[in-house]
Amino acid sequence: MSDRILELKDLHTHFFTDSGEIPAVDGVSIKVHKGEVVGIVGESGSGKSVTSLSIMQLIPSPPGKIVSGEIDFKGENLAVASEKRMKKLRGNEISMIFQEPMTSLDPLFTIGNQLIEAIRLHQKITKKEARKKAINMLKLVGIPRADEVVNDYPHQLSGGMRQRVMIAMAMSCDPELLIADEPTTALDVTIQAQILDLMRSLNEKENTAILLITHDLGVVAEICDRVVVMYAGQVVEEGTMREILKDPQHPYSQGLINSLPKIHEKEQKLYSIPGVVPKPKMGRVGCNFAPRCEFAFERCFHENPDLYPLGNSRQSRCFLQDDGEGEVKKHAKADIGG
User: Is 57 left (phi over 0), alpha (psi -120 to 50) or beta?
Assistant: First the structure.
């Protein structure tokens, strides 16, 4: 796919705490193309949200800081962009939908006031024109009685409605890239499906690229073209949605897939990956996933694996993919799901 709009190149975002330096994002490289929906998946603590906040330069500083790497947005490195430049980009060319809509909307102002402010901040139009556009955006995201809702306060709306308002606000300036951080987490399943349909519809109509942060593989299957699996601040696997869900190569990806309930099995004990995500630390030796991996062997604890290319932009950070360990790879594949 051509027309690359965003590329993270070996991004490192660290937090400097009393306990020492913490590499929350540890050498992440991700590409997003125009009109593409890319999902970033992983457990809590894997670095997904910190990656998205790094792109927007919204990492709280102190203690956080982008220490190295590039955030290439249409040829411009946002990692070194000034706050003045980022204010022009945020909400205009790059928008973000946050996880909890109630805390993202100001309870003291009406929905209309907040939408109008976002629109007029980036577009030279009158307040009357901005109000008209705000109402049209609310209609676009499926909010009934939009001309009345525009006068409501956030607490008067349901969680699903508030999330629709957040999407309307994010899309109001026709961004080229939309970052959605767990946009359906706080919603019930029915509203979740509506929000995902809405995001896919906007993606198709406006050709907006979407970077979707989630831990829900069901969401990934519903909307994503390509998937990046993160673990302990690193990308451990990347591929198309079908490749990752049908034939995961990294043991962590396999664990995530295996932990999904199987609809055809009536009596089953749900699988869970043993252990927890390790706390990031500087100078870690060995594979981050090795302590939880059923296929780990000696090399995994003494060397740091690279991302091994598997063809067609697919890659996996696992020694089982190393040509020099062919027998181990064959053995592991035979055991998976067995």
Answer: left
pLDDT in tens, 255-270: 998 887 777 766 667 7
Residue appearing with tokens 């630390």: 281
Supply 269's token pair. Answer: 């004990």
The CA distance from 307 to 175, in Å, is 31
Bond from prior residue into 63 cis (ω within 30 degrees of 0): yes
CA atoms within 13 A on the CB side of 314: 15
Per-residue pLDDT of 37-52, as tens digits, reads 999 999 888 899 999 9
- pTM, two decimals, is 0.86
Residue tagged 């049209």 (tokens) = 136
Strands 226-231 and 37-41: parallel
Number of C-beta neighbours around residue 309 at 10 A: 12
Q: Any alpha helices (H) in 176-325, and if so which ranges?
A: 189-206, 217-223, 241-246, 251-258, 298-302
Residues 6+ apart with CB under 8 A from 129: none
Q: H or E segment at 280?
A: none
- Nearest CA to 34 among 242, 204, 214, 222? 204
- Cα distances (Å, whole numbers) of residue 333 to 242, 265, 311, 312: 18, 23, 18, 20
Q: Which tokens belong to 267?
A: 């009596």
For the segment 117-132, what is each residue's pLDDT rounded down to a tens digit? Answer: 888 888 888 999 999 9
